[in-house]
Queue: 2 jobs
Job 1
Amino acid sequence: MQFEIRKNERSLFIYIFVFLWTGLASLYAAEPVNGFKLPVVLGIFGVTAFLVSHLLLVKWEIRGDMLLFPLTSMLNAAGLIIVLRLSPDFAVRQFIWLYVGLAAFLVTIRLLPDYRKLEEYKYLYIFAGLLLLLGTILFGVEAGGARSWIDLGFARFQPSEVVKIILVIFLASYLAEKKEILTQGTRTFMSIPVPGLQYAGPLLVMWGFSLVLLIFQKDLGTALIFFGTFLAMIFIATGRWSYIVSGAGLFSLGAVLCYLFFSHVQVRVATWLNPWTDIDGKGYQIIQSLFAIGSGGAYGTGLGLGRPTLIPAVHTDFVFSAWSEETGLLGGLALLIIYCLIIYRGFRIALNSRSDFGMLLGSGLTSLLAIQTLVIAGGVIKLFPLTGVTLPFISYGGSSLVSSYILLGLLVKISAGDGT
Amino acid sequence: MAVILLVLKFTLIAIIYFFILKVFRIALADLKRVSKRKGDRSAEGIPVSGAELVVTGSTDPAIRQGEVFRLKKLTGIGRNRDNTVNIQDSFVSHDHARIIFKEGSYILEDLDSVNGTFINGARIKDPVTLEHGDAVRIAGVTFKFVRWEYEVE
């Protein structure tokens, strides 16, 4: 085994392990009545999971990016600590999902021979994506206001998490092929080159796709992420503002229509503009979130010493508020800095990629992660209307964690380039 | 007890920031290394990225196997003497094909040659973006397209 490679990654993991154990120790010190067995067992399992994954990457001599995996592991460690603090039951399940997620990450890196092969099956993806989406609409069960789950009996699974990645792969291969035509246009309208209807098609299809999500699944957040990622990718591929402008126009149109026809959208907007009129009802969740973040102050209350459990759905959508309450502004900012670093590395990988497909795939996956983080972190601090999506790598949730790790695997794969 | 909690609280936050600092340092060192390499190269007048055609097989005695043609913004291939890649073979047209560097990629275009230009065994009709490792064949000469760039780390 060549211990020389991925040395930087190894040195960063030492910080993560110390961090994980300090967090678990703080939880025990805050509430010794919960016993020390669970934190110790989970701590050992957590360290083993990351260490084994790292060593496997070394053994397989993967020479890709060395910062992404430690960065996401740090987020994941913070997530495990805060989920354990909020609910020990969920924490045990989250540790199991951690193993599944890391397995998915390693499988993506190891078994995918060359990421560029992905480009060849583009229409299969759109078919698979639509099938999953249709399946959810027909057989889905409702949870947390959104009908976006499929019940498998032993576990519930959220297809839209997987569809997100499939969609980015599809768009990357589609845009890599049609880039020139979409940039130059086939006819002109008032001296501006406009692509013919067949090329504007995907824009309309994606718009429809997002609207269907919105209408049938009531899943505002995911719809927003889909459309946002799509606009980012088409802009990266063509460099033309006209797509952003027309896309934003379509989005506004869709948003206004939904606002007029759906009461749950009206509620979201109303609680965003002024939650205080209905403190005990519809505004309760967001107000509790604001109270939590505010009471944390600059340094936080300390792990296990705040009262984040007052927020409904705290372990999934509002995990950022809970973290900010107990570690303060400093802790919250640290997470955001880590997200920024991940996004920086992601775009860097995309820029260094040698093919159009690699560039588009890398930047698409990074945009997806960035938009999702922005939507939920902005939602819980009442910067945007709240839409329930998970905070990547931190929130409780199996589908989200596993798909985030697949995304990470693909990014590392692109950075490793051909061959490995 | 309160002291222990306080110490743990600040240790936890401190560790994250030490971690972030370390990541910053690695990322910066990485950036400096890349820009230094670029600086060295551009000082010598050599571009930081480029591509070349390596001859892997040839029936033309004037072109030896292993010969390297560095690609320019416009590289012409043909029987005419003014082409960068000059092949003296009756199966090669006077201006047979050209490779244009455009927006970061090399595009191979067949200039309506009689005997065609082949990429990985397939004859091309429209301009094709070359990928690292592609085999380009014109009459009896086979080239391997090699893209080189300074690697990340």
Job 2
Amino acid sequence: MTPPLPDGLGRRLVLRSFLVQATWNPRSLLGAGLQWMERGVIPGPGGRAVEANGGGEERPAQATRVALEPRPFNAHPWLSPLAAGARLRMAAEGATRAEQDRLGDALRGPLGALGDQLVWAGWRPALLLVLALLLLVGAPPLAAVGTIVLVYVAGQTVLRVWAARAGLALGRQVGQALTRARLGPRATRLRSGVLFLAGSVASAASLLPVLLLQGGVEADGGALTPEDLPSPPLPGPGDLLTWAGVGLVLLGTGAVLGGRLRPWVPGAAALVALGLLLLRRLAF
Amino acid sequence: MGFVLALTALLALGAWATLDTTSLGQTLVCRPLVGGTLAGAIVGDPVAGALAGGLLELLVLGALPVGAVRLPEPGAAGVVAGAVAALPSTPVLPPDPGLPGGTLALALVLGVALAWVGGWSQSLLREGNLRRLEAAVRRAGGGAAGLALGRLHARCLLADAGRGVLLTGGGLLVAWALVWGVAVPGWVRGPGELLALWPATRLETAVALGAAGLLGLGRLVAVVAPPGRSRTAMAGMAAAGFLVGASLVAAAMATGLSPGGGTTP
């Protein structure tokens, strides 16, 4: 019979998972963070106290060293409760440390890859692009930021809670939960949504100059005089199409260059753009 | 908000944004669009903060933390950029009409530079985490493993928060030196005089930066494009979004809305 796990263990796993990357280092990666999440004494077979990957027959000092010199572990932080929960369930069922480590090793790849696709390439850019779009079409900044941050945190909390529950419930069979949850297809849909949103923001941002000239931001900053405002005040369809076309070309250029662009290149391009602006004005 | 209170709040926000990147929480506070807006609100102009943060966001949005590559870290950078961009709304600077362009340019230059320094300092922090881990192992006696791990976490978090304060404080210090002109020998004249030399309005500056930002957004498109989908399908998805975005902006303009929640005059 599977031994019961203490109340509140899942909650503690979820809360500690928010800190799982605090000790990230080049040797054990998330290993120390995972150890810290698992440092809960849970009842094992026969009532003997056990801990995942660190308790058992060792003397306290030895257990401490084992905890502080963990095996390398890596996963997406939001999915890390799944691995910790599964290892704790295995410990409660009397699995050896080697068995727990094998499960941890097996989960490293899938939890990292799925999390990267679902969150870093999906959920996070999607919500940031929604926020950008909201701001561009006139939402109050603080209200928009607050709403999007709340939705983002709610989403990650749901994922962490699901991961902790699945791990603690299924132990070594936790792979079934990953299969059933269909995280991969969900990530693909999210990433398609990011493409859509990127297109939306690109066109809206291309039209930003027109919006600025309408008086919102620029007039607040006091930079425009009435002579600077376009006449007629509302731009025609031709202006909008021109600006949108410029945006589409730039977006397409970035997309075609894509992976060949180093992460710092857009920032360098911004500095070059400012330099050109300065030179153009100084020259004329 | 008083100067000391605003400075303290900005340093705290910078520390939070830096911690939020990796060590604590991973909410969106580490993103320039969010951090910049909040910093702008602290200084007194959330719209200007959102503009600077949004432009910086476009530049770094395509840098996803996937694989072993050093990335720009925009947490503290967004806070500094948002705060600097909002300066013209404060009594610190005189109401010079040329200033918003200069402050936006300065905000983004500082933001880009700090994002690079942030990425580099994050590598140093992680090396430091390893040293702290090794020190904890040496100190480990008969104490409880949980307690030792808790202390280790506290030390690492403190180091990361300190890094955030240093990055934010350093960025604000450079901004202060440039705003007052003390960074240029012989220029110490008055607040904002150096920035007023910037030869472009905020609009022109934003357009130049936005063009580079769209390049960064294109990088995101290339990185997140789902595998197995045809290029035509992906381009179609982005193009559909393009039309929707243009329609939204046109509708917003027709109803008189403008960025930041105001209405056009």
